[in-house]
Amino acid sequence: MLRFFTVYLFSSKTDLKATQNAKQSIEYGTKIVGGVTPGRNGEHLGLPLLPSVRAVSETFSQFLFLAAKEKVLIVSQAKDQLKPDATAIYVAAQQAAGAIEEAIEAEIPLIVAVAEHIPLHDMLRVRAVPSLKVSLGLKFSKVQSMLRSQSKSRLVGANSPGMISAVGKCRLGFHPLPTFTPGSIAIVAKSGTLSYETVASTTRAGLGQSLVIGMGGDPVPGTDFVDALKVFEHDVDTKGIILVGEIGGRAEEDAAEWIKEYRKRTEKPK
Question: What does the pLDDT look like over 81-96, one tens digit per residue?
């Protein structure tokens, strides 16, 4: 999901915390192609700043940075050919669902949302879950399961620390960078804090990490344990997997069922 050729769109208000996070990610090796702030056109951190994800999809090919392992090549006039591989959304809870919807409509392949306290109704609008809709008595006529009705975009979060490839040196979110080291262990966790502890433990053990996904603790995550396990199954850098659960919901039970079937059909499971 995150490798050397990931180009990353930073979607947020250009405030101090968001700017600091972007600087840290760039220093780590993340290839940030630019930013999105509503109503703004110009430049930030030496990168193009555009007013919407749609504007990026339509015009960003003129500025797109194609990331290579050691250097960045500028691709000019690559019209209708290149788009950002991912976007990280750093906006307040009340605007987050709209930002996620815009990214899905723009068909950004990977969307990471870090905001907590996004209203449940908003997330259900983004990813409608039938059982929850019935139990909560919610009706939807305008937007029906945006994520489930398309195959272009994957959402990680919300209420998530994001995800990071220690192998690819790419961070989308706010994981603490000093604890990470490239390795072979993939980690998925509901709790951000427990994921940091697990990362630190695998670093101390000399195992390192391949890919770390913060599922987030919201009732309606964009990517759940089973989704993450399917990614890890096919990730060539991953040799072992750690899943960190938390009280509440049945995500752990669903993951256990998937693991049982995975071990039946795989000669050498991770």
Answer: 336 788 888 888 888 8
Whole-model pTM above 0.85? no
Q: How far apart are CA 259 and CA 261, in angstroms?
A: 5
How far is Cα 144 from Cα 17, in angstroms, rounded to an integer? Answer: 34
Share of the chain above pLDDT 90, in %: 39
Q: How many residues does the chain have?
A: 270
- In this predicted structure, the answer to whether residue 22 has a pLDDT above a threshold of 80 is yes
CA distance 215 to 224: 6
User: Measured between alpha carbons, how far is 243 from 241 in angstroms, rounded to an integer?
Assistant: 7
Q: What does the block give as tokens for 152?
A: 């272009």
Judge contact between 86 and 111, C-beta under 8 A: yes
| Between residues 221 and 189, the one the model is more confident about | 189
Q: How far apart are CA 104 and CA 154, in angstroms?
A: 8
**3-class SS string, the chain:** CCCCCCCEEEEECCCHHHHHHHHHHHHHCCCEEEEECCCCCEEECCEEEECCHHHHHHHHHHCCEEECCCCEEECCCCCCCCCCCEEEEECCHHHHHHHHHHHHHCCCCEEEECCCCCCHHHHHHHCCCHHHHHHHCCCCCCCCCCCCCCCCCEEECCCCCEEEECCCCEEEECCCHHHCCEEEEEEEECCHHHHHHHHHHHHHCCCCEEEEEECCCCCCCCCCHHHHHHHHHCCCCCCEEEEECCCCCCHHHHHHHHHHHHHHHCCCCC
Choice among 32-41, 95-104, 226-235, 256-265 with the minimum mean pLDDT: 32-41
Closest CA to 182 of 238, 232, 233, 230: 238
